[in-house]
Structure formats: structure tokens, C-alpha cells
From TrEMBL, chain A:
It is a multi-pass membrane protein. Belongs to the ABC-2 integral membrane protein family. It comes from the Bacteria. It is found in: Cell membrane. It comes from Pseudomonas mohnii. Its main location: membrane. This is Lipopolysaccharide transport system permease protein. Keywords: Cell membrane, Membrane, Polysaccharide transport, Sugar transport, Transmembrane, Transmembrane helix, Transport. The chain crosses the membrane at residues 42-65, 71-97, 118-139, 145-169, 181-202, 237-255. Residues 24-225 form the ABC-2 type transporter transmembrane domain. It holds the Pfam family ABC2_membrane.
Amino acid sequence: MTSNSIFNALADIVSSAKRYPLVGMLGWADIKQRYRRSRLGAFWLTVSMGVMIASIGLVFGQIFNTPMQEYLPFLALGIVLWGFISSNVTEGCVAFTSAEAIIKQLNIPLFVHVLRCFWRNFIVLGHNIVIIPIVFLIVGKPLTLTMLLFVPGIILLSINLLWISLVLGVLSTRFRDITQIIVNATQVVFYLTPIMWAPSLLPSRHAAYLLNLNPIYHLLEITRGPVLGTTPAAESWIFSIAMAVIGWLVAIVIYNRYMRRIPYWL
Amino acid sequence: MENCMASIDFNNVTAEFPIYNANGRSLKKRLIQVATGGKLSADERGHVVVRALEDINFSFKDGDRVGLLGHNGAGKSTLLRLLSGVFVPTSGVARIEGDIGSLIDISLGIDPEATGRENIYYRAALLGISKSEIERRFDEIVEFSELGDFIDMPTRTYSSGMHLRLAFSVSTIISPEILLMDEWLSVGDANFQHKAEARMTDILNSTKILVVATHSRELVLNTCNRVIWLEHGKIKMDGDPASVATAYFGM
């Protein structure tokens, strides 16, 4: 029982996955709790995101002098997906600390709390995604078969987000400053990543080189690209897959080592 | 299932909490003033550590009704958390066989904005009770809680008594082999208390091992057949209720 094999972490993850009814319920409960007694509910997020996309679109579309038919779908997808990524990462930091009461009272596998955080943000993504068809309709952008590649893309993105949340969750339970660092870092990454600006706007090769080292760029490429009708570059796929594999290996090692300390750190 | 024996074995179990946000020195100074509570010390890297439990040894078997006595901070709650599996000992071995149910903090997970109905599902999911099981016993729970039509109202509209009745009714549908409690549950008005008492007795009779932390002499004498007195994270006395109670409470 106290053996320190790598299977402890795996066992926790597997039994967490088996508690999916609990994960589903807690995730929905989080959403309901935030928006109870409001008529639009979680669609308030969609409304505010829609307003943001419209205003950034109008201003920066002019500044960059890009046709709206191209810019608006690009921007809308970027912002919706970025919202999913950034909220997963920042809320992942507090996945364990916000569940302190449960963790200290009930023996529930801990990865449940990471899954809950992911599922909650996935539901929010589900609400926000309705912006996309509306934008496509407004600017009259055609649908393509390439869009089907969005499905493997979002799965791969999710696999990556899960290990990132897990690692950040463990580390920021021990070092509470990490949450603040991550919140700040995500703001910086937002500007460094082609969300508001298109990669084609980069002037030099050096800048493009930097872009290729940005993991968020590749994760966006494999999800945003297909919906915009472009097949993602093979290197974006390879980068994302490699990141998932290596990331999960690192995450399991860290989790296995510190999983049992989490209740003590809370 | 029925033939399975439940058992708990603690072998030199120690639980130490790192205190990261405290200044080591000032805490050390305060150490002298601390009358009760676990031992404070510094580990090899200079972190302040609270040793909530130190070298705890015992084994419980079927039929044991164990009372935990001790002042606030003596380590009762930590011990209950080790028993529930929430904490894994910092050193030593805690072997627990049998499924564990807890009646500690029965209101945990109750969302005041959600309806009583929703909260029954939340609470049940947290306790690991399947949805089909809860659906099958839903009417029974509602009837027991005596909430009537209030079951579809947000729980923030409930009185504190109604709140507890709801929490009690869901939390007590379990029948674990090992039951953990922090004080005896006593809820509602005289009429409900009577019902609650009967249900508690039912659970107690079907459970194989009971561990209850308490400050009550009556509970120890009436319910337990073994009592452990914790002080400063160590077992000060372990024996039959009458003699431990006499030593702890005085004559």
C-alpha cells in the first residue's frame, strides 16, 4: 500500500476516470452555481466574448487592413480557443486548493478535481463555440471538409491541457505564488501568440522562428486551422503529439511523487 | 461480503504537517506557550513541522466500537482522516481493510443555491453512491427528511434544522463496514431526533468497526467498548471505556 511505484499515480488517474458521473456533476454544478438566478446563464460568457471579438475585430481589422471575411473568423476562433486554453491553465492551478474541503474530508481520487476543472471549461467552450457559426454566417465564409480535422485537434489539445493542469495543480498547491505567475504569464502569451494578429503579418524569419517554438501556436494551429479551411502543417501535429507524450510522462512522475503530499499541503 | 472481516492496523503511524507560511523562530518561541496541540519541531531542512500524530499503534477488528478522547488539537481529527484514507501516514503503515463510510461534516458539498433535490444527487455522488441507487431510494430520503415540497426549493431558503435534516437523510443511507464519526449526530426537533436516533442505531448495528471522536462521557460509556485517549499526538491511554473515562474526565 505504501509502495512508491509509478502505478499509484496511474491508479489514481484511472479511478478518477471511473468516477466520471461525479466529475460530470461537479463540473455542471460549478457552471450552475456561477450563473444561477441569471436568465442567460453561462451564455453571459458567450455574450461578453462576442462583444470582445466584435470590438477587437473592428479596430484591428482596420489597423491590419485585413478583409473582414478573413480576419473575423480567424480572430473569433482564436479568442474562443484561447479562452478555453487560458482558463484551463489558470483554473488548473487551483484545482486542488479550491477543492480543499472535499479533499480533506472524503477519500476521492485526486485527479477527479483536475478533471472537474477541465470539464467545467469544456462546457464553457461548448457555450462559446456558438459564436463561430454566427461569425461564419455574417462574413459568408464557406464550410469545408477540412473542418473535420478539428475533432482530432481538440482531442490532442485537451490531452495536453490535462497534463498541464495536473502539473500546475500539484505545484501551486505547494507553492501558492505559482498561480499568480501563471495568471501573469498567460496575459503575456496572449500577445506573443497569433490570436489577434495573423502569423503572416510577421516581418522577418527570426520572428517566425520564435513562433515555431511557441507550443500554444501549434495547439491553436491544429484546432483553429482546420475550421478556417487550412490543413495544419505536419510539424504542428508532431509538436503537439510530442508535447502530449513527454508532458504526460513528466506529469505522472511529478504526480506520483507528490500526490500523497497534497492533502498535507492544503 | 458478509464473511469478510474488516480490520484496521496502525503500525508506528506518524503524521507531520509542514507549515510553510510560518516563521520558524517565532513559532518556536510560541511552542512554550502552546498548552495543547501537536508537537512543533523543525525538520532537517529547517521547515517548521507540526507532528499531529506520533508513533501510533493499534489494531481494530470486527465488533470494535472505539471512542477517541482528547483535547482540541490532540490529533483526533487527523487520526480520523488517516482512517478515512484522506491522509497517507508520513511514516509508518496504516492498513485498512473494509469499505469506509464517514458521517463527519455531513453538510459537505451542499450548495445553498441548488435545490434540495439537486443537493441529494451532489451529496450522493460525493459519497460514491450510484445514480441508480439514489434514484431508487430518492423517495425514501425525501420522506425521511420531512421536507415535502421544499425539496424543490433552493436550500438557502431552508432553516438550519431543515438543512441538517436534508444532509442527515442523504448521508445516512450508507451502510459501511467501517464507520467514522466526529461526535454523535443529533439533528432536528424531538420527533426527528427520535427517528434519527433509530437510524443511527441501525447503521451502527450493521457496521463492523466504529470509530468516533468525542468529548462526551455518555457516548463513550454507552456506545464504545474501547477508548483511546490522545494527548499531544500520542496515545496516552488505550483501554476499556470505564477506566479511560475515569482517568480522562475524573470521577
